[in-house]
Write a structure and sequence with these properties.
Layout lengths: L7 H11 L1 H4 L6 E6 L8 E6 L2 E7 L11 H12 L6 E7 L9 H6 L6 E2 L6 E5 L2 E5 L14 H11 L6 E5 L5 H8 L3 E6 L2 H13 L8 E4 L2 H11 L5 E4 L4 E2 L10 E2 H13 L9 E6 L9 H10 L4 E3 L16 E6 L10
Parallel strand pairs: 3-4, 8-9, 8-11, 9-10, 11-14
Antiparallel strand pairs: 1-2, 2-3, 4-5, 6-7, 12-13, 14-16, 15-16
Length: about 350
């Protein structure tokens, strides 16, 4: 039975109570406040970004009404989060077939007027382990920062820290959260994405940390195309970060091929392994939210089959405490790649 509207405020307060330690940390002002079934609200996900919240409803989720009313949920979570300084909550409906909504979805996701509360600036700054990032709450479905990768960003930075000047390549970099964390640890980073707009956003994130973007590298091109170029020119890296989307459209004008994680992830891993410096850290951080690759052990099996038995898996953090088990989530793995002579041939 779906939760009753009169219970929403109580459920919201309980969800926040479970995250009390994280929410009281002034060094982190962004977190997931509600994680679906794990918080007794199937299909309901609420994220905090400093003074702004987002309400994500996965329409069609069993246990969620077929035509849910977002207003009562939004009012409940905004009221529960008022002690944290929350002033607005924006609505982001999620449907697998977005074409069914025509242009309505785009209008909702780009509306500067929140569902409840006062309008917020187009860009606001949040903290993650004291690292500032720019987020945008009504700039499409995504906000500029994937909160479930919080501990992985810190772990990757720690990997680069002992070797000041480590060369880190961040592919499909989006707004370059991993690059910023690595650069703050002393790494020299290269961030690659097909979108000029998100690369500009990435540069602003560097500036927020007082990192000189001129000392780092940004490349607007497809990740597979960049890897081919790097291999030809002999560019080598200590750590390569792979967090591709499930699908990506082709761009014939820029010679960017269509992307499918299920089909293309092995080729991406092989190409990334080929640009690792055999005398360096030889690390691949691989992440995905593709459903088939998030099955238990699936990503590691893919990496083992691609990299061969000589690859070693290194420990990574568990999912953050604000993403409790009970909902599908991303999968990630860290592999120390064998030297070139030990890689399997294809």
């Amino acid at each position: 039975m779906p939760p009753r509207e009169r219970d929403f405020l109580d459920l919201a307060r309980r969800a926040l109570d479970r995250r009390e330690i994280l929410l009281q940390d002034p060094a982190t002002t962004c977190a997931r406040l509600c994680h679906g079934r794990a918080d007794q609200l199937p299909g309901v996900f609420v994220d905090r970004y400093a003074q702004g919240l987002t309400l994500i409803l996965h329409l069609g989720t069993p246990g969620l009404p077929s035509d849910p009313r977002p207003q009562p949920l939004a009012e409940a979570f905004l009221r529960a989060a008022e002690p944290l300084g929350a002033a607005a909550i924006y609505y982001k409906p999620f449907v697998r077939d977005r074409s069914a909504l025509g242009g309505r979805l785009d209008r909702v996701l780009s509306d500067p007027q929140p569902l409840v509360g006062q309008s917020l600036p187009e860009a606001i700054t949040v903290l993650e382990h004291a690292v500032p990032f720019e987020v945008r709450l009504y700039d499409g479905f995504s906000t500029g920062l994937f909160l479930d990768q919080r501990e992985n960003r810190r772990a990757v930075a720690d990997l680069a820290r002992p070797d000041r000047g480590a060369r880190v390549l961040n592919l499909f970099c989006y707004t370059a959260g991993f690059s910023v964390a690595s650069a703050r640890a002393g790494a020299i980073t290269t961030s690659v994405d097909v979108s000029a707009r998100t690369l500009d956003w990435a540069r602003r994130n560097f500036a927020l940390s007082a990192l000189d973007p001129g000392r780092h590298f940004f490349a607007r091109m497809g990740s597979m195309e960049f890897l081919a170029l790097a291999a030809r020119k002999g560019h080598r890296f200590d750590l390569v970060i792979l967090d591709p989307p499930t699908f990506g459209a082709a761009d014939k004008r820029r010679a960017v091929a269509p992307w499918s994680a299920e089909r293309d992830y092995p080729a991406l891993v092989r190409a990334a392994a080929a640009v690792l410096d055999p005398e360096g850290l030889r690390l691949l951080f691989c992440s995905t939210n593709t459903r088939s690759l998030c099955e238990p052990g699936a990503l590691r099996r893919l990496l083992r089959g691609t990299l061969g038995p000589a690859a070693e898996f290194e420990p990574l953090p568990e999912a953050p405490a604000d993403f409790p088990p009970g909902e599908p989530s991303a999968s990630w793995a860290l592999a120390r790649v064998a030297t070139r002579s030990e890689l399997p041939t294809i």
